[in-house]
Amino acid sequence: MNMTSFNYTDRPPYPFNTSASNVVRAILVALLILLNLSGNIMVCACFYSNRSLRTLCNYFIVSLSLADICIALFAMPFWLVIQLTNNQLGDVKLVLSDQVYTFWSCMDILVGTASITNLVAVSFDRQLAITAPFTYPKVFTHARVIALICALWVYSIAITLVRGFADPKFLQQYYTLMVVILSFFIPFMVMFVMYAKIYHVARSQARRIGGNFAHDLKAAKTIAIVIGTFLVCWGPFFLYNFSTYLFFCCKLKYDIKVMVPAIQCVKWLHYLNSCLNPIIYTCLNRTYRTAFLKLMRSCCSKGNLDEGSFRSSSSTQKKNSEKTEFITRDSDSSENVRKNGKMSSIVEMLRRHRDERKV
């Protein structure tokens, strides 16, 4: 997300620069985009092709994957363009028009907030399924899950519309703080509470049935991966935006050029999160892992089948051509024999006629 609303229009535009370092950064961003698309499209494909994966919780996973796909399509390409310029501030309006900058900023906020809120929905779904398994089917019906997913996207759109249509003075004074609270602080607290409840219930149930320390450690590691990845990828970004907001409110000056490495780092981290979500929320799931392997094997088998059929058709065509060539040669030879036979008979008749005239 790009929430910085400070005015840099007094700066000269930065020309494109295809130096080696810029090209390398652009290639890395392109690889992130491909990794994002491949992983999240695989999640959606497995959900569509495997009926056993069409559970209510996985509806939130698919919604999360769609949000991450939107990040790869509508947010990261602008960041790729920035890598090919001398401007490493993450402010695309210095390179393109203000309208394009506004579009990128709005899409960045929209899909970023949608991704985070879907992570919260996954944590709430898992918490209710584990802590209240008998109540879960009554609370989470198919219609309610679809309605909740739509509500999450409407929530993200509402925050984005404020960025697009609010008064510039409000954007400078309050919008950054509003997004930090609504898109990060509150979602993080909800996720932390939900996974804390999950760990508490898992630990108590393990002790009740005679579980050991290894089981508790495994559950703690899984939750630590989920919470830790979210905090590491999104925390620095919102911390940076909140610090710039404080500098602005306190009217403190700072050198933007000094902040360039920090801006680069936080943007890379929060875009990296959309690539890690398919790994964390699907590869840690045994059913999804099996579906992934089946899908990859089917794709590979189709490729081998196509290659095998191509080879067999090629060999068949080769045999047919050899057979045709042999038949052609045979027919040519027989034709030559017939022609030679006719010529020899004509020569023989001429000889006889000459001998008769001599007699």
From TrEMBL:
Residue spans of biased composition, Basic and acidic residues class: 319-338
Q: Which Gene3D superfamilies match?
A: Rhodopsin 7-helix transmembrane proteins
Give me the ranges of the annotated region Disordered. Answer: 306-346
Q: Which residues cross the membrane?
A: 23-48, 60-82, 102-124, 145-162, 174-198, 219-240
> Which compartments does it reside in?
Cell membrane
Q: What biological processes does GO assign it?
A: chemical synaptic transmission; G protein-coupled receptor signaling pathway, coupled to cyclic nucleotide second messenger
- Keywords, A to Z? Cell membrane, G-protein coupled receptor, Membrane, Receptor, Transducer, Transmembrane, Transmembrane helix
Q: Where in this chain does the record put each G-protein coupled receptors family 1 profile domain?
A: 39-281
Q: Where the protein is mainly located, per its record?
A: membrane
The GO molecular function terms of this record are: G protein-coupled serotonin receptor activity; neurotransmitter receptor activity
Note the topology in the membrane.
Multi-pass membrane protein
Q: Which InterPro entries match?
A: GPCR_Rhodpsn (IPR000276), GPCR_Rhodpsn_7TM (IPR017452)
Cellular component terms per the entry's GO annotation = dendrite; plasma membrane; synapse
Q: Which Pfam families match?
A: 7tm_1 (PF00001)
Protein name, as recorded: G-protein coupled receptors family 1 profile domain-containing protein
| Protein's organism | Nematostella vectensis (Starlet sea anemone)
